[in-house]
Design a protein that fits this description.
The model has no long low-confidence stretch (mean pLDDT 94). With 249 residues, this protein is of the alpha+beta class. 47% of the residues lie in helices and 18% in strands. A hairpin with a 2-residue loop joins strand 1 and strand 2.
């Protein structure tokens, strides 16, 4: 792949543009099974009426596994929010409306969110008592089957020139309780230092969906624990503060 076509890079993956295609190239730390599962998740979401890039193929490129998708030309909602802070409320309303649309869908073949979170809690670097409290809380939460994105944040929304929003990065998609996905988005705003926006987002979502803020808050320690498993060192202290389940009783 040509470096001049590189549009995004992380230590474990790189994303390139090639004409009307986007090439998501994984390094050797990703197993074939995980890459194929990500592609399968994405393909299942494609069967809804949501605007998502279409997978074209799964290939080996330069000796590495790659997912080839449609390239969606546009600007991320995060970039627009950064450029136009005066439109924060407008963009936040769009963000919440899009999330509510996603959460209204059913994709019954996806893995269950509760199963994934139980496994993450078991793997988290937490004492046995805390893990027990988190497992107990998770098991007590209502079982729903809504489409959950798993990483719903403004950077994963692309707005095209005609204003059409596309939702990208479905690698963490599951089916489960909507409020778990909302709790994760809330934490993601916090993790990038946007505490005021996090609070505004949560209030707006709960008002529009007629959901009690306290109900979403009950998910926050669970979601924080699930993120802790692969969290960078810079996030760990923050996440541990949210995992103190006693604060939410």
């Amino acid at each position: 792949m040509k470096e001049e076509n590189l549009i995004f890079s992380r230590p474990d993956k790189k994303i390139y543009m090639s004409g009307d295609k986007l090439i998501k190239l994984f390094d050797g730390s990703y197993s074939k099974a995980n890459i194929l599962n990500e592609a399968l998740n994405h393909a299942r979401v494609e069967e809804t009426d949501l605007n998502v890039p279409k997978i074209r193929s799964i290939e080996v490129v330069d000796g590495k596994w790659a997912i080839i998708l449609d390239y969606i030309e546009g600007e991320t909602l995060q970039s627009l929010m950064d450029k136009h802070p005066e439109k924060e409320d407008e963009y936040l309303n769009l963000f919440v409306d899009l999330q509510r649309t996603v959460l209204s869908k059913k994709v019954p073949m996806l893995n269950k969110l509760k199963d994934k979170m139980n496994a993450k809690i078991s793997s988290a670097d937490l004492d046995a008592t805390t893990r027990y409290e988190l497992h107990t809380r998770l098991d007590s939460m209502p079982k729903h089957k809504n489409l959950c994105h798993g990483d719903f944040n403004p950077s994963n929304i692309i707005i095209t020139a005609d204003g059409t929003p596309y939702i990208i990065d479905w690698s963490h998609a599951t089916q489960g309780n909507s409020s778990a996905d909302v709790a994760r988005s809330y934490l993601l705003f916090y993790l990038v230092g946007k505490e005021n926006l996090a609070q505004k987002y949560l209030k707006l979502y709960c008002r529009k969906s007629d959901t009690a803020i306290q109900y979403v808050q009950r998910w926050i320690p669970i979601v924080a624990a699930s993120r802790l498993v692969k969290a960078p060192e810079s996030e760990r202290e923050f996440l541990h503060k949210w995992i103190d389940v006693v604060d939410y009783e």
